[in-house]
Write a structure and sequence with these properties.
66 residues
Length: 66
């Protein structure tokens, strides 16, 4: 399956990683939550896609951890 580069760029520009992984890269939908602590602060990683045991997560936070 060839990758549609303009659509990939659109998803990246829109921060639409779920569509990027599922629609463009052919990954499967995945749901789950992974709490992670970085430098004493808690962050929630939301699973968006998975492929053969590898999961892709997004972190929707106000600031980027150090």
């Amino acid at each position: 399956m060839p990758i549609d580069q303009p659509r990939v760029r659109q998803h990246l520009a829109a921060f639409d990683f779920a569509s990027l992984f599922v629609e463009e890269l052919g990954w499967d939908h995945h749901r789950g939550v992974l709490p992670v602590q970085v430098s004493g602060e808690m962050y929630t990683l939301d699973a968006i896609a998975q492929k053969r045991g590898m999961a892709a997560y997004v972190c929707q936070c106000v600031s980027i951890p150090p």
